């Protein structure tokens, strides 16, 4: 909201959504007076309606409500930031309508990348990445979009809170420890994904679909300072990097104002004070989620949807206190090993694989 307020009146909020956080959503409805506001959790709708009070905003609930917010509000740019698979239907609906998508929900592209990119070509929808890493790659590719000129894409990773912790101590990791990210302030699910490095694995699959590069040309490099957000190496040996402070206002604003730029109220990067930058390869034995994501991506079809669903369930169970941290990757591996991936990425197949994987992941300890 800081970004939209700064860009006002050029940008206005015309739709808002949430899952269960009806209190903050109700306050935003009263402040921004959007045309549509929707909550995904239908059981909370009566209380949400009461909290909002008298309003001209159309209040909706459920999946249909989210889709209406994405497609019927008159929005020109839809910021897709719903965490997890719940964002698939409204994002796909907005793509099919030909709207510009500022994509902050990597899980939807992981689940249905072939379908979403195919529909975007058909409708003319523009998908702009909001993830700091993919926004960085997008900017580095500006002026040189020909995939034949790219030698490799390098996604940087902070390494999470346990990059220096021995693997032997992973079974004792607590939820509180896992939620303490060293450089970014993020939601619980994405913070745990960063701790397991699944976040980077999902980003590899997302990069494959966004930039149409094979997995053999997408690398991950741990960069603890999180100053270089990602890089592109070209065939002539040139490496372009996008640098900036760890502030999500920058990629959000760039997606909203693209292809232009605007002043942003963020702390400026001082390289002289920073001194040194460090890089090293990720330890895939210690963080197996990276390799699991590459394997699922290369298998294609419904495998990425299964990877995502199993991860969502395992992360939720860990956050609820019912699962050890080191079991997250093991459950994902078990579910993937039992899945017979369909080569077709049709929506019905994807949703069926998603449901199956969730049920399977619930059954492992």
Structure in a nutshell:
The protein is 46% helix and 13% strand.
Structure description:
- The protein is α/β, with parallel strands linked by helices and 365 residues long.
- It has a domain at 2-129: Rossmann fold.
- It contains 16 helices and ten strands.
- A four-stranded mixed sheet has the order 8-7-9-10, covered by helices on one side. The chain has a three-stranded parallel sheet with strand order 1-2-3, with helices on both faces.
- Helix 5 (88-96) links the parallel strand 4 and strand 5 (100-103).
- Helix 6 (106-123) runs antiparallel to helix 14 (303-319).
- The longest helix has 18 residues, at 106-123.
- The chain starts with a helix and ends with a helix.
Key features?
365 residues, alpha/beta, Rossmann fold, four-stranded mixed beta sheet, three-stranded parallel beta sheet, 16 helices, 10 strands, globular
Write the topology of this structure.
Elements: H1 2-7, E1 15-18, H2 22-32, E2 36-39, H3 45-52, E3 58-61, H4 62-71, E4 77-80, H5 88-96, E5 100-103, H6 106-123, E6 127-129, H7 132-140, E7 150-157, H8 175-178, H9 188-196, H10 198-211, E8 218-222, E9 228-234, E10 239-243, H11 249-257, H12 271-274, H13 289-299, H14 303-319, H15 327-338, H16 347-362
Parallel strand pairs: 1-2, 2-3, 4-5, 5-6, 7-8
Antiparallel strand pairs: 7-9, 9-10
Helix pairs in contact: 2-3, 4-5, 5-6, 6-10, 6-14, 9-14, 10-13, 13-14, 14-15, 14-16
